[in-house]
Specification:
The structure holds 2 protein chains of 2 kinds. By secondary structure, chain A is mainly α. Chain A has 12 helices and no strands. Classes of the chains: A mainly alpha, B mainly alpha. Chain A: This is ABC transporter permease.
Amino acid sequence: MTELPGPKPAAESAVESQTIDPSGEEPREQSVRSLRGDAWRDLRKNPLFWIASVMILVFVAMAIAPGLFTNTDPRDFDLGEARSTPTGENWFGRDTQGYDLYARCIYGARASILVGLFSTIGTMIVGVTLGLLAGYKRGWVDGLTSRVAEVFFGLPLILGAIIILTSLQGEDDTYLWIIFQVVLAQVVLGWPSIFRLMRASVLQVTPNDYVASARALGASPLRVVRSHVLPNAIGPVIVISTINFGGFIAAEAALSFLGIGLRPPTISWGVMIDAGLAARSSAPHVLLFPALFLSLAVLAFIMLGDAIRDAFDPKSR
Amino acid sequence: MGTYTVRRLLQMIPVFIGVTFLIYWMVFSLPGDPTAGKCGERPCSEAYIAAFNEKYNLNEPLPVQYGLYMANVVQGDFGENQYGVSVSEELVERFQVTGQLGLMALGIEAVIGIAAGVLAGLRKGGFMDNLVLISTLLVISLPVFVTGSVLQLYLGVQWGLFPVTVSGEVSFYSLLLPAFVLASTSLAYLARLMRTNLADNVKSDYVRTARAKGLPERRVIGIHTLRNSMIPIITFLGYDLGALMGGAIITEGIFNIQGVGGYIFRGINDRDGVVVVGAVTALVLIYLAANLIVDLLYGLLDPRISLD
């Protein structure tokens, strides 16, 4: 959260913007200020960006190395102590099976973060590519991709996921295979919303003079799209995708709640919440802690999305 | 406008066929025995399986099966579920409940979402803006099934303000809490979308022009800015109706509402393909109709988007 000294940010923003060869030429960088350089400058000043980033880093660290946060084995249980409330030894208490809630909350991060990450990347790749194609090419390409998107959009997320997951699931699926199934379902059903957003955004950007002049100057379609349309149209997609990251984590939990997403013995916040709901009137803390972790993770991504949006929006300057 | 409507209607046909085929294929052709669970715990007799396959044309190639099924659907016949009850009749009953729930949620969403978004977007960075941003953040980050269960526990069970579950006669009052829960996430997204749009539009040239020519503030905001900010909102709402009705499955589960969502979920658990395909097909029809209306409104709201 500390402000970096003068010269270094300038160098960073130049590298970010890639307008100058990062290998050298320090003095000229001061004069170059690209959109991305400006955005980074703005982002650094936004406390929400730092809070969100730190939270996300913590969750990612949890996902990569849960051992850093706890020495307790999440699979150690003590049935006699089941539902015990938080104590100095078990910070979050124990759940209905007598597992240590703190350890399970930490270990549960991995499944959620993986599902969110892969789903976000997958929907973005498919949605942005097709959105650019449809919005820029128009004509039959637009017609065809839009219809295909409508077909997939026609399946509501939860319903579609239920159908996809029940048809894919077997009796003894491995950890990664289950996660892949959930990701696949979310990408198949989630890309049309990114596609629509991107297409609409491209439709708004394309009539602009700068696109027309780039064309008039003889830029190839690829260059027009890459350097002029994409940077100006992707803003909403980045924001929504960052927010969706949280949404995917929440959707994973919802699917686990319905009994078709991740399931025991996999440790995930969704599975824990599902178990906690059953005991919510007698032992609310069993529901509270995993719900808190899940909500904080979702919150972090939404805050990050907001911060990025504000920074990248030239109109907010 | 007339030709556009007709063209749009014609474009709906491939989409409808695509979605229904996708569902049909996933439900009936992926691994798994369609007759599993039809005869209780034991496997079905060969005679039953043969009769079942014959009845639903499962011996035919997939496109033929699908074609025969759709021919029935077009005539309003969705087949029978495993107890021999007509799916169409059950659907009509359950759609009334889910439809009411979905429309109530959409209404709550539109009113609260737009109001909150306008309050926030008019003065970006102000108190209302931060309040709306923080409260929507909280709503979005809480999963629906947690919000639903907790509200049910406190408002329903402990304080007795709302009915805990919806049983027997479905009334406006008994659906109020479920509709609110169902709307909550979309509502927050809508408020944020409205805020962003409005804040962007308030700074645009035509608003400055409207102010410069001396229009009263209420007209500048109410007519010029709001109407232009409404375009993405209408789109969002239109598409959301289908999502709300399809996503009602969780809310319906929590509040024990006998709607389409629960019907589909039970159908999947029982491996009752006829029920699943029928109910989802009906949902898709509604979704497509909502989409069409949105697309037609698009041209009316934004003259810059030409329909031809």
